[in-house]
TrEMBL record:
InterPro entries: Phage_phiJL001_Gp84, Phage_phiJL001_Gp84_C
Limits of the Bacteriophage phiJL001 Gp84 C-terminal domain: 182-264
Signal peptide (from-to): none
Pfam families: Phage_BR0599, Phage_phiJL001_Gp84_N
Protein name as catalogued: Putative phage protein (TIGR02218 family)
Amino acid sequence: MSETIARAWAVTRHDGMVLGFTDHDRSLQFEGIEFRPDSGLSARAVVQGSGLSVDNTEAAGALSDSAITEIDLMAGRWDAADVRLWDVDWSNPENRRLIFRGHLGEVTRSGAAFRAELRGLSEPLNRTQGRVYHPRCSASLGDGQCKFDLTRPGYSAEGVIVAHEDGQRFTLSGIEGHDAAWFERGQLVVISGVANGLSGIVKRDLASAGTRREVELWSGLGVYPAIGDRVRLVAGCDKRGETCRMKFLNYLNFRGFPHLPPEDWLLTPKVNR
């Protein structure tokens, strides 16, 4: 049977798009997916460790307008996509064995080719567990621990891109009624155009004359939006207790320890009285 074994794998993005690939010279069909041979995509040998070791392998291929495009890769639309890999009998696809399941890790590209790291299901088990005792909040704004509702009036605003530089520094119109730096450490989310759905963390937020606003991200968007596209700004949090109490009125859910003594206190010699 080894003469009829091929490798087939399916990649499912978070937006629900599913693509199938195979190293066989003809298309294969199973589980409602067509596995195409013309994608230029291949996988290296799977490395699977015992215990809680991280399963790992790599996928390499050529950028294809009909499958994986350069724009989609740069936009991060393939980040953390679900991956399943089978050994399959191409003469009878019902005779197959699932040998890997995980998700895409880091994706790099060079010219017209790309390489993606595959990470196994056991990877999260190697993450550090437990709370960190720190004066600042350990929650993320709006998550299950913070419980703040970011849809509340005043904590987000929509505007239009008037100009931008390298998809990183934006001039926006239509956003008013917010103090300067209100959106720093928050998010800029593109909600229309070719970059729809992409987001970045706000580094600087400057209120200009009238309704114009200058916003700079920590890193540029993978796909440049067009002038006239709409964006949403979401308020940011610096995780201080004072900010939680005064800006968000959410101190009941503050997850930090603001009254912990500083490190210097531990090193200060105690004087007997």
